[in-house]
Design goal:
Number of helices: 14
Shape: elongated
Radius of gyration: 30 Å
Largest sheet: 7 strands, mixed
Number of strands: 14
Distance between the termini: 24 Å
Oligomer: single chain
Structural class: alpha+beta
Length: 419
């Protein structure tokens, strides 16, 4: 669960940094095509960068970089033992998924509405688009190669020509793909407020692009303003390029804006170092060591204790396998064994020491437990107790890869918790 929360936090931070750069440097420029690409990257890069894996050699082990495969065991100072059951219903995930489902369903309803209007409209095929004339009181909009107008607008040749010229630009620029992509991302990552802001800016940029092309074609700016204001009161269709989208004072100003100097395009190169920093910060194996001020722990080897078995591992060690090692006939057997073995050290209770110890071990191809060590510790008292208990684990059924038994590394978190 923690890894998903960390991922979402990284997505929010990454998108926030990119959006801040856009607001500070780019939003008032007339480089609409470049701004469009930048905003699309602001939706995609923050999602992709955290899952890029760049291994960086380091002696520091962080919770983020460990393959936590086993349920956490919580040992309290009163002797109570609690297991974090992976099979329990996670209501946070359930609620999050429910909202994602509702937002995706909203997209389906929007598509269904467009299909319904399409089915009852008169169609006229043109060279590079299809015009649909509806008797419903709809405002002009387009999606893919389809342009929708109401029958009243269709009767006014001058207005219709302006609308069609505007919507054809949306079609030629494939703005519908941007709209669907941004809606999907906002639906899945609805918790990220930055993505909603980026989506709104992207739609506005689409309109700036279309407006600039229209005015370049020689249309009168006053007549064009009037046409936009005539459409201001209508409803907008989800997923579509609405003619009355983003009808704001800012849009009016952008139409009259002087073209930005070409040298200002160099500022977009700032995206390269920002992307590199985000990749290093979020996607490397020791990302937490780079971006966090939290306390780190280095590997702690087995304590010098003759009672702890030391087994040599022969062959390659895997952090995953086609079939993971199995302890006993039931999943609870491992928890049951460790709950009986792990004891809260008395001195740790007196000194009010608590925390989570991550113990890694290798299940060899013969099923034996080897290489027991602390990969993230708290205090030598708790670390030693966790290592002692895990080292006493009896044999597993070994893991398999490509049908052959292999050495598999596993991690068990053991939390010592004061009441």
């Amino acid at each position: 669960m923690n890894e998903y929360i960390n991922y979402l936090i990284q997505v929010i931070i990454g998108s926030g940094i990119m959006y801040l750069l856009y607001v500070l440097l780019f939003k008032n420029t007339s480089f609409f095509s470049i701004n469009r690409m930048y905003l699309i990257l602001s939706l995609l890069l923050p999602i992709v960068i955290p899952v890029i894996n760049i291994p960086i050699k380091s002696g520091i082990i962080t919770e983020n970089s460990m393959p936590i495969l086993l349920d956490e065991i919580v040992i309290s100072n009163s002797g109570n033992i609690i297991q974090s059951e992976s099979g329990d219903i996670n209501y946070a995930v359930l609620i999050y998924s429910l909202i994602v489902g509702i937002l995706l369903l909203r997209m389906v309803f929007a598509a269904a509405r467009i299909i319904r209007i399409m089915s009852i409209s008169d169609k006229q095929k043109h060279e590079d688009f299809v015009l649909l004339i509806s008797d419903e009181n709809i405002n002009p909009f387009s999606i893919f190669c389809y342009v929708f107008v109401n029958s009243e607008l269709y009767k006014h040749n001058t207005k219709l020509k302006q609308v069609l010229s505007h919507e054809k630009i949306h079609i030629n620029k494939f703005h519908s793909l941007d709209n669907i992509l941004s809606e999907l991302i906002c639906s899945v990552f609805w918790i990220n407020p930055v993505f909603w802001l980026v989506k709104d800016k992207l739609k506005s940029t689409h309109e700036y692009q279309a407006d600039a092309k229209i005015l370049d074609q020689g249309f009168d700016i006053a007549d064009y303003f009037n046409l936009l204001f005539d459409s201001v009161g209508g409803k907008r269709i989800g997923l579509a390029n609405n003619f009355n989208q983003s009808l704001t004072l800012k849009r009016m100003k952008m139409m009259k804006k002087t073209r930005s100097p070409r040298y200002m395009r160099l500022a977009y190169l700032l995206l390269l170092p920002i992307a590199a920093i985000l990749i290093l910060a979020f996607s490397s194996n020791n990302a937490e060591a780079i971006v966090s001020n939290s306390k780190h722990f280095t590997k702690t080897n087995l304590p010098d204790d003759d009672t702890i078995k030391k087994i040599e591992v022969v062959g390659e060690i895997y952090e995953g396998a086609d079939e993971m090692p199995i302890f006993g006939k039931e999943q609870d057997k491992l928890f049951e064994f460790l709950s009986n073995e792990v004891k809260y050290p008395e001195q740790a209770k007196l000194d009010s020491i608590q925390g989570r110890v991550f113990v890694s071990f290798v299940v060899t191809k013969t099923g034996q437990v080897a290489n027991v060590e602390v990969v993230k510790g708290v205090h030598e008292l708790l670390d030693s107790e966790a290592v002692r208990a895990v080292s006493l684990l009896p044999d597993f059924m070994p893991g398999k890869k490509d049908g052959k038994a292999v050495n598999v590394k596993m991690v068990v978190p053991i939390a010592f918790q004061l009441d």
